[in-house]
Amino acid sequence: MCIVFILGSKIFALQERHQKLAREKDKALDVLNQELSWQEEKLHTVLQSMNEGIVILGDADRILFFNQQFLDLFGIQLNHSGVKFLDANRNSEIRKLLFHTRHGQVKKILDFCIQDRDLIFEVKALPIQFKGRPSRAILLRDLTAPVQSERSKREFIANASHQLKTPIAVIQSYVETMLRDSSIDGEQREKFLSKIYERSKDMTEMIVRLVELSKIEAGQKPMDSSRINLSLFMEQKLKSFEVLFAQKNIRLESNLAKDVFLETSAALLEMILDNLIENSVKFMPEGGSISCNLRDDQHRVLIECKDSGIGIPSEDLHHIFERFFKSRHAEKWNKGGTGIGLAMVKTAVDQMGGSIEVQSQLGKGTQFALRFEKAKAS
Question: Which of 9, 270, 275, 327 could covalently link to 341 via disulfide, CB atoms 3.0 to 4.6 Å apart?
Fold first, then answer.
């Protein structure tokens, strides 16, 4: 009986120990599952907050995971994973992405056209294990802005060099002629010096405008915003051009709404109006007209500058805000320029958070319409 009791006690103790171990094991598994769940949630949060777009594909290009940035970059909608990539969105650019990331580890710079926008992505693809399954991860990084900025810088330098090359060559030829030919009379020498002066003035104007444009683009142009009475500002600006208007017998018409206020930089606003009015005068025959209007359009203000000048060909309208662009039509009229003024206007308008539109007809004139947010009532 004693032996039975002892054996029973040992069996009971073993059962207790087994149950304790089972409880501890269940507790450890719970902790482990919680840890795994937390780690998965943490990974999901990290992947969703990435600046890069990411999509993970399994067999037959079935989507296992994607983040919101990927959807935004490609302009597509997906409600859940588990579907085949091409079934989810039959897009030629998706096919292009799949083609370039089909095999092994990949790193490429690719151009895409998505929703009528030209975009440049760095594309990386690498084989991974995702939830225990062989998969491949595709990462997209948007390089559009930095690549286009670098391209613009290269084009800017090339165009600036080309634009400065011509006046320098002309100046050099006149100077060489005067140095080489001592028989040049005073009248001819005066003519040469006048040409040299004109060309050097053109170069100075171009350099000054290039510096101004660079400052605006770099955000270095003072944006000392202040509350401006736009009605008075435009009235004073138009008065400052009265002598220039009189020289070409230009008729000015203006209709300026009263007490319209704008919260913006006076320096940028002045530069915009100066360039638009100077352009109108430059490309207008004598006896023409300029109309400047200011309208109060509820939450926005509308500035219109219209002239009866030579006009702009329709094929040139999409290019007039590009740096160094000069319409051949203007050159036929011997109305050259730096090709920078309207680029400065567009950049300044963008800096001020506004918009600018242009309409034009050959031989009838051009109209610029600018819109800005009104200043809040003080």
Answer: 275
Tokens of 294: 């200011």
Single-letter residue type at 113: C
**What separation in angstroms does the CA of 236 have from each of 256, 273, 279?**
12, 11, 18
The CATH number of domain 224-378, selected from 3.40.190.10, 3.30.420.40, 3.30.565.10, 3.30.1330.10: 3.30.565.10
Asked if residues 292 and 316 have their Cβ atoms less than 8 Å apart, the reply is no
- Going by C-alpha positions, the residue among 53, 97, 93 that lies closest to residue 71 is 53
Q: What CATH homologous superfamily does 52-142 map to?
A: PAS domain (3.30.450.20)
Q: Phi, psi (5° rounding) for residue 50?
A: -65, 145
**Contact by Cβ (8 Å): 303, 373:** no
Summarize pLDDT for 51-80 with one digit per residue, the tens: 788 888 888 888 888 888 888 887 777 776
User: Considering only CA atoms, which of 372, 326, 334 is closest in space to residue 351?
Assistant: 372
Instruction: Let me know: does 167 contact 199? Beta carbons within 8 Å.
Output: yes
| SS3 state of residue 57 | strand
Per-residue pLDDT at 90 exceeds 60: yes
Sequence ranges of the domains in the chain: 52-142, 147-220, 224-378
* Residue 296, SS3 per DSSP: strand
188-245 pLDDT, tens digit per residue, is 888 888 888 888 887 887 777 777 777 776 665 555 678 999 999 999 999 998 988 9
* Two tokens, residue 267: 């320096």
